[in-house]
Design goal:
With 405 residues, the chain is α+β, with helices and mostly antiparallel strands. The chain has helices at residues 3-16, 18-24, 26-55, 87-96, 131-134, 147-151, 161-167, 212-220, 238-252, 265-308, 310-318, 323-360, 368-394, 398-403, and strands spanning 60-65, 69-70, 75-76, 100-115, 118-127, 141-142, 156-159, 177-180, 183-190, 207-211, 227-232, 260-264. β4 and β5 form a beta hairpin. The protein is elongated and about 105 Å long. The strands form two sheets. The protein has a six-stranded mixed barrel. It folds into two domains: 3-51 and 271-403, no CATH class; 103-224, no CATH class. α3 crosses α12 (323-360), α4 crosses α9 (238-252) and α10 runs antiparallel to α12.
């Protein structure tokens, strides 16, 4: 039989049982669709992490509160729990460690700020004068507060563009005052607009930055800081500085168990990507099982088809068709069934990714390589699971086939 004739017969056989063909391909559709959707979401999440790390500035280390031992039972808290970090730790790092471009002790809060008869709830960050340089954040209006402001617990502030627009529409905020918890702060600078964070969940310009000492003593009444931000002068010195910071802080604790963690941007990105990758792997395993089930479904239906068409096979063999023609006939039907499932699965995966992006705002990055791979794998499933039924059909005895009822 010519290939065109085989294809025509294959299409006709699948069209004859439309519902059965679609149900058979359902496993392939679900598996391929899940692969495309999960990979697209995973790629989008990875892109977000990379963008977030880039937005923090270059060659950054961050010191976080580490595990602490609490109570007589020795229970240990998680990273980011009770903080023992102090501004003195940050000062020691700046004074004693080489290859550092800036250090900023950090403490965060939220508060309602009032100015011009308007109010706005925003993030309050206590930082050092190095913060804008560490974060590579320009100040087009005014300037950053000084080290003298930090030492004197000055009530000065640098505000983000969103806060400026909300409280001082069509005005220059520099030199004016705003109140934070009934305490007046003079605005000395306005940060350049950065827009939303790469994941679209946080407005980076919705911020008020004040000296960390002022936030600690005047507003938060808190002795310790939340974290320490460190800028390293070169990427080649990151590991060296990281080890030096760890050694210095360990020494300052005078033999106590280290209760801090020093992380660089690569580690932060890796931690987030690891959690995303674990979830992605789980779903890909489920998708692979779905493809396997789909392949078994194709084998089952093709075996049923061979049984239903035994007399047809016998007639073809009797009028001169070869076993290879019959094998090719059923193998092409299985591949077409699998490719149909692969095509619908790709459309379903792309559609699901688009829907998630549209309605949930999650980023997606559709990979043409994975689309081609999923489509090719669906064809492989058709060949792998369709071969046995096709071979069984080609081995039928024409006389016995003609006698089949």
């Amino acid at each position: 039989m010519r290939l065109t004739s085989i294809l025509v017969v294959a299409f006709r056989a699948l069209r004859r049982n439309k519902l059965r063909s679609i149900l058979t391909a359902l496993g392939i559709i679900m598996g391929v669709g899940a692969v495309i959707a999960i990979v697209s979401l995973g790629n989008g999440a990875t892109a977000i992490v990379e963008a977030q790390v880039a937005s923090l500035g270059q060659n950054i280390l961050t010191v976080y509160p580490g595990a602490t031992t609490q109570g007589g039972g020795g229970a240990r808290g998680q990273q980011g729990g009770t903080s023992s970090l102090t501004a003195e730790d940050a000062a020691a790092i700046a004074a004693e460690i080489e290859h550092i471009d800036g250090v900023s002790p950090e403490i965060n809060s939220r508060a309602q700020v009032i100015a011009n008869g308007l109010n706005w709830n925003t993030q309050i960050r206590g930082e050092s004068p190095d913060y804008d340089r560490i974060r590579n954040w320009a100040i087009p209006q005014g300037a950053m507060f000084s080290e003298a402001d930090v030492n004197s617990l000055a009530t000065v502030a640098v505000i983000g563009k969103t806060v400026a627009d909300q409280l001082f529409p069509n005005e220059n905020p520099v030199g004016q005052s705003l109140r934070i918890r009934n305490l007046p702060f003079k605005i000395v600078g306005v940060l350049a607009a950065k827009g939303f964070s790469p994941n679209g969940q946080q407005d980076q310009d919705d911020i008020v930055i004040i000296p960390h000492t002022s936030l600690q003593s005047r507003l938060a009444r808190q002795a310790n800081i939340f974290s320490i931000l460190i800028a390293v002068d070169s990427s080649k010195n990151i590991d060296r500085v990281k080890q030096a910071v760890t050694d210095l802080l360990t020494q300052r604790r005078q033999g106590r168990e280290p209760d801090f963690t020093v992380r660089d941007q690569i580690e932060l990105a890796q931690l987030q990507n690891d959690s995303t990758s674990t979830l992605r792997l789980l779903v890909l395993i489920i998708a692979a099982v779905s493809l396997l089930v789909g392949g078994i479904g194709i084998m089952n239906i093709m075996l049923v088809s061979v049984t239903e068409r035994t007399r047809e096979i016998g007639i073809r063999l009797a009028v001169g068709a070869h076993g290879a023609d019959v094998l090719l006939q059923f193998l092409i039907e299985a591949v077409l069934l699998s490719l149909m499932g692969g095509t619908l699965g790709v459309l379903a995966g792309v559609g699901a990714s688009g829907a998630v992006h549209q309605y949930l705002g999650w980023p997606v990055a559709i990979s043409t390589v994975w689309i081609a791979g999923a489509f090719g794998f669906s064809a492989f499933v058709g060949i792998a699971f369709g071969f046995f039924p096709a071979w069984k059909a080609s081995q039928l005895d024409p006389i016995e086939a003609l006698r089949f009822e």
